[in-house]
Amino acid sequence: MSSQDIPEENLPAEQAEEHRAVAVADEQNPFADPGLPPHEHRIQDTDERAAKRSERMVALLFTVSMLATIAFIVAYLVIPNDKSIFVFPIGHISAMNFTLGLTLGVALFCIGAGAVHWARTLMSDVEVADDRHAIAASPEVRAKVHEDFRQGAKESAFGRRKLIRTTMFGALALVPLSGVMLLGGLGPAPGTKLRHTLWAKGKRLVNMNTNQPLRPEDVMVGSLTFAKPDGLEETDEEFQNDIAKAALMIVRLQPDNIKDKRELDWSHEGIVAFSKICTHVGCPISLYEQQTHHVLCPCHQSTFDLSDGARVIFGPAGHALPQLRIGVDSEGYLQALGDFEEPVGPAFWERG
């Protein structure tokens, strides 16, 4: 251990003298400790009118922040989503996005600028030097810290500058409302849309590949056929949203191989219809194993047994695939006998 690592009070007198920092550098002590420069008072420390001007400036910044937050909320409620404006040199951009970004930026900037201006002009700027101490503070040190905190709070004039305190609380209270308003951008509540699809009684099952209605003889044992509701076309504006819930997979099993009684009752001559949408995260199921009657989701390997109510036998899926009750119409085409009795796809908070 060198003499630099030994506390000064434990060094011999002659070494302690050399160990101490000096105010003027020389050959023996090349590192000088000039100490703190004399404190210079700011104009706000000596002139109460200047302090009042600074207080009004800080309050103005906090007030502008509040007004900007209010403007953010108004813009979010009033400006149409499809309205665009020209901003040089960017070009045409969304009027709502531009206004929301501008107002929120001004609100946050004014809070920061107000806090900085308050600290630089009104809070105490006296520099205080303290000796380094051990990590575990003694009771005396803790008492000193508490006293320093109380003294700092007093010198910040937080209790005396009521205008600053009031406007700062107002700005800090309003800014979080911007985040609350943004929650509306998640879109309208789904209502009962998650519980219903395009399937209804009398809707024919249409082959996704041929776009032709399906007859029982079109579905062979061991084959996997994908179907959609009659009338749903890829050119429809809402096709992706509708097929995401209505996509169906058709499998023909030997009736003796169907273990679940309800599944057998809801089938037609061993033809069963289940939702194609995995109940884990909504991936489309496309892999079928004829010998075991299992279908596999390619995303996370959830496996369902189509001979036993499409229950989950492996993987992270939380529940079985919903089954669609089917039959045949007067012309011999496969048709739905109603909608799914439970929501398709992943579970959600209202699922019973």
Range of helix content: 25-40%
Termini separation comes to 71 Å
Instruction: Estimate nothing, just give the exact number of structural domains.
Output: 2
Biggest β-sheet, characterized? 5 strands, antiparallel
Fraction in beta strands: 5-15%
Quickly give the structural class: alpha+beta
Would you count the extended β strands for me?
Answer: 13
User: Which shape, going by the Cα principal axes?
Assistant: elongated
> Could you report the average pLDDT, rounded to the nearest whole number?
86
Q: What's the gyration radius in Å?
A: 37 Å
Query: Uncertain segments of ≥5 residues (pLDDT<50)?
Result: 1-21
Strand neighbour order, sheet with most strands: 3-4-5-6-11
Number of helices: 9
Listing every helix as H and every strand as E from the N terminus to the C terminus, the arrangement reads: HHHEEHHHHEEHEHEEEEEEEE
Main location: membrane
Subunit structure: The cytochrome bc1 complex is composed of a cytochrome b (QcrB), the Rieske iron-sulfur protein (QcrA) and a diheme cytochrome c (QcrC) subunit.
Region (Disordered): 1-49
Keywords: 2Fe-2S, Cell membrane, Disulfide bond, Electron transport, Iron, Iron-sulfur, Membrane, Metal-binding, Oxidoreductase, Respiratory chain, Transmembrane, Transmembrane helix, Transport
